[in-house]
Fold this sequence. Notes:
The protein is mostly beta strands. The chain has helices spanning 10-14, 19-24, 31-35, 191-196; strands spanning 76-84, 95-99, 126-131, 136-142, 153-159, 167-173, 198-199, 202-203, 212-215, 218-219, 233-238, 240-241, 252-258, 263-268, 276-280, 295-296, 301-307, 315-321.
Amino acid sequence: MESSAFHIPVSRRRLLKNMSxxxxxxxLPGYLAxxxxxxxxxxxxxxxxxIDDIPLDKDNDLVKIDDHLTMASGxxxxxxxxxxxxxxxxxxxxxxxxxxxxRLGEYTYSTNPGPNPRADPNFAGFGQxxxxxxxxxRFRTLKPGIYPGRARHFHWGITLPGQQRRFSTQTYWxxxxxxxxxxxxxxxxxxxxxxxxxxxxxxxxxxxxxxxxTTWDFVSHFTPVEPAYPGSGGxxxxxxxxAGSVEGRRRFRISVxxxxxxxxxxxxxxxxxxxxxxxxxxxxxxxxxxxxNQHTAAGDGVVSFxxxxxxxxxxxxxxxxxxxxxxxxx
Length: 330
């Protein structure tokens, strides 16, 4: 049984920050906004996938790779929450990236492998999610193993609309002894910021396996401004049936105005949660192989994308980023 998406509102989690206010039975105007703890920055680390290793299937389910019949083995772990601005408001169109070690502590895309062989070729190792209007996200992945010098952790990259670079941070497991000696975790001087990325995991009710879940709200250090096109953001486009077929499969065509140096991605409804958008692979020609998930325009004009996957509503979300912006690559 899969767990459903869930989260603990920021206001509830932060309410205990000032016990005198809680014990008095009331909150002061503006108190909750002031009580929100901004997420601390952490190093991106050396194991973000190299540009040639970015997987074609990089959705929010790291346990199941599209063309694999076998799921990854290990403790299935669900992480959900929201992307919020510094005032606690949900952020639409935030790019959420997750990557981490496999169950034996090896990174899928590591160029310097450790003592263990790669634990599971069915583990994606990297995924991404684009938030909808609620700012909510969800990932299904595996509990990472531990490698020398570090506590158990996830790597996160968050890119808000209008930003050129991702904000990198890491989250940890509450109650683990290695937390006390992890140099990156303990480099955070603010106690509340450090505690905000140490997460409590619990068993998923109704599952026969040892599945775990947690919630985590990322709180940005600023309030984003969503620019109009051309500019980082997105467009809702209805897909049209393309004439003819390829190997008996119907394709859908999406055409958008393109600008030199802008990078485009296509999204449909994601697996596991109807919260935001799942990245979809495409071809730039009617009969070409569906073998890319990102395109940077060489010049101004119109570009057409061909897909085999139709979204339930027939509409796709076209994400575009200005030249130099984070594209989900190193």
